Hints:
The protein is an alpha+beta fold. It has helices spanning 12-24, 84-87, 120-132, 137-143, 197-203, 213-226, 239-245, 251-256, 264-268, 314-333, 343-346, 354-370, and strands at 8-11, 27-35, 38-43, 54-59, 62-67, 91-97, 103-105, 112-118, 147-151, 177-184, 187-194, 209-210, 275-281, 288-294, 304-305, 308-309. Helices cover 32% and strands 24% of the residues.
Amino acid sequence: MPAVEDVRVLDRGGLDRLVEVLLREGYRVVGPMVRDDAIVLGELTSSAALPAGWGVETAPGRYRLRRRDDAAVFGHSAGPQSWKRFLHPPHRALWSTGPGGEFVPAEEPGARQAFLGVRACDLAAIAVLGKVLAASGAFARRRAGLFTVAANCTEPGEVCFCASLGTGPGASAGYDLALTERIDDRGHRFLVDVGSPEGARILALVTTREAADDEVALARDDVAAAAGKMGRALPPGDLRALLRDSRDSPVWSEIASRCLTCGNCTMVCPTCFCTSTEEVTDVTGEHTGRAERWASCFELDFSYVHGGSVRTSGEGRYRQWMSHKLGTWHDQFGTSGCVGCGRCIAWCPAGIDITAEAAKLAGEGAGDAGR
């Protein structure tokens, strides 16, 4: 964290001006907004679309908007969308051909992006994807010039468990500016930590004041207290070894009896990165094209090789997803594939909870060790 004397205070109107400054500086600003009974991410043309006064209630298989008693802008936990969709889009044209057979590469978006309100878990997810997609020129181009305004979490959602993974609730790296929202008898304001020279330059274009020592202490205490408010956690210990040794556990078949293999968990996950390609042509046969789209290891055809699919059972597909996410991801990329955002729990229609299933596997192992 920056030194206390480096922390600035931005009032509620100052947040509006920050959005205006980013737009004026040529950034495409993306932030949270209310749409379709959820808090989603979309392009902001002003701060008016921010979800002031809205919170959410989450549980396994449940997500509901609720009205707050105050006008907090960032008083909500993760919604169904992650920032991944703006760096690693769900569908991306790769190339096309014209009537004469000429090859036409797809155009890449030119505007620099500014993300407003990124949680610490999602900052960690962007860093993880940076490792996974290091060789992807498209990801690197979208990430280049990215301006990130983090929102430190003071009210974790009911399915959040980032504290057990060390990815939150406070942002520690990867941001240009980090905001901690506070509403009390001193008013509605945001304490601002600066994380980069570009962050300092942008903040200098907005009216701020120096934070008092007690204001900083209260904000830091709010973020620290959030770690103790999470009702979920992954079990401690070596999850790689746990999953490796649990390959034949009966837990997998029990999960499969509930799992719909719909792939919701992979679609809302901020780090799942698998893609497939598809080629299309129009009815005249004069125009063709190739596109990349998100894929899921829950799709039956995902593991298709000559002769059939490798993982035909729901049990095998769920085991593959969870074992990769929490186990072999470490071997491939040196980190966990999970950041503790809880989206896979809230948006699973069967209410399957990855933390509860990991705990079952850990308990089973503990029982074996005790015999």
